[in-house]
Amino acid sequence: MVGYLLPHPPVLIPEIGRGEEKKCQATLNALEKVADEIAEYKPEVIAIISPHAPVFSNAFFLNDKPEITGDLAKWGVYGAKFSFKNNLEIVQEIAKMCAQEGLAVAFVSDKLQKRYSVSRELDHGALVPLYFITRRYKDFELIHTSYCMLDDINLYKYGMILRKAIEKQGKKGLIVASGDLSHKLSYDGPYGFAKEGPEFDRLLVELLQGSNIRALYDIDPVLSENAAECGFRSIKVLLGAFEGYSIESKVYSYEGPFGVGYCVAAFYQKGEASSSLLEEIVQKKEERLKRIRENEDEYIRLARESLEYYVRHRRYLDYIPDYVTERMLKERAGVFVSIKKDGNLRGCIGTIFPTQENIAKEIIRNAVAAGFYDPRFEEVTEDELDSLVYDVDILSPPEKVSSKDQLDPKKYGVIVRKGTRQGLLLPDLEGVDTVEEQLKIACRKAGIDYESEDFEIERFTVERHK
Hints:
35% of the residues lie in helices and 22% in strands. By secondary structure, it is of the alpha+beta class. It folds into 3 domains: 2-283, LigB-like (Protocatechuate 4,5-dioxygenase, Chain B); 296-390, Glycoprotein, Type 4 Pilin (2-Layer Sandwich), CATH 3.30.700; 399-465, Hypothetical protein ph0010, domain 2 (Dna Ligase, domain 1, 2-Layer Sandwich), CATH 3.30.1490.150. The strands form 5 sheets. Strands 7-2-8-1-10-9 form a 6-stranded mixed sheet. The protein has a 4-stranded antiparallel sheet with strand order 12-11-13-18, with helices on one face. Strand 15 and strand 16 (421-425) form a beta hairpin. Helix 6 packs across helix 9 (232-240). It starts with a strand and ends with a strand. The model has no long low-confidence stretch (mean pLDDT 96). Residues 294-466 form the AMMECR1 domain. Pfam families: AMMECR1 (PF01871), LigB (PF02900). This is AMMECR1 domain protein. InterPro entries: AMMECR1, AMMECR1_dom_sf, AMMECR1_domain, AMMECR1_N, AmmeMemoSam_A, Xdiol_dOase_suB. Residues 275-302 form a coiled coil.
């Protein structure tokens, strides 16, 4: 098995870049090298994992069109059209194996395309790598898929399935993980700057240069999230295809001329591994969650136990645990409870003003609400409980502000109001770095047009427990 990490900025294609692509010469040279290697390897099937294909929370998109097509018209290039034969036997085998593993596959019908504004056409995450590959080699069938928002274990298992399904059909396969690294490398870039951007890219590239694959699973999820990358999950699917084998990885290029990191890397199978990487990933997750549970304070513990009790008994916790503090029993405040699963939001519900007789009961109610009544998510199930991580925010009473100069998105949360419309955003959220960003999000939640409508602003502080 051979795999590659390939970037996908459309500007790399000369017909689109019109000279700008020359600023990425190291990437272009590396892509040519990869295309030459693929032509020599002669795969019968290429599976491409694209972050810009439809991405679902708990199901892997899998393209089941007999002919998978795409073009560059979106970028003003009307003569370049791509068409690849799909291998439907492999597609069905992937779906079958996923069902056996308890993983969901999402086929997108014409009806779903219209309903959710998604497409089975080739996206730029697939088109850009395929553009360079097909300049050297075209004799392959294509599997077009994406990752989803499940944990590292399930991403890895999906990669295992991709390989098994290809090999079961007796085909010689190759897997491409499409993805760019941090989108926040420069203040002048389209996505701005975050200090985590260069840090994440430097760490990932160093690990790949040293073939230190196992250490990739030690990278802090907060670091990768704040770096605003779109390639790490693709890589984690790709790595699953090498389960049971040692991996040699080589970095052919890395650069970030437009404020976004582009890395071209290869992954080669090198003999049997001394131990299972899948087992190590499972163990690391268990150890991380154990550390989190051991360090829970009274607020977090009460939120967790309240939701667990409700899931198992379908009624609110009807007693106050003895670890609850005197302050939690005597004081009243608005409370927000946030739930995350595998680093992704799983539910968040709160109250601006207290609705219960004390903070403890406010936490009990809002923990259940976050797990069951957040309209963005399905209800939490019992088999998820061990994977959930909680934050509890205790709110100060809101106060009106007369100027945006009185706001600070790291220190203050905001409430925006216009008539009966109201939106709230907590402070110090990942990816919210400016007052304008904070107000725009709060207005969007309230249904207020930030640009054209006047609105009142209030601020508040939080006491955060996590």
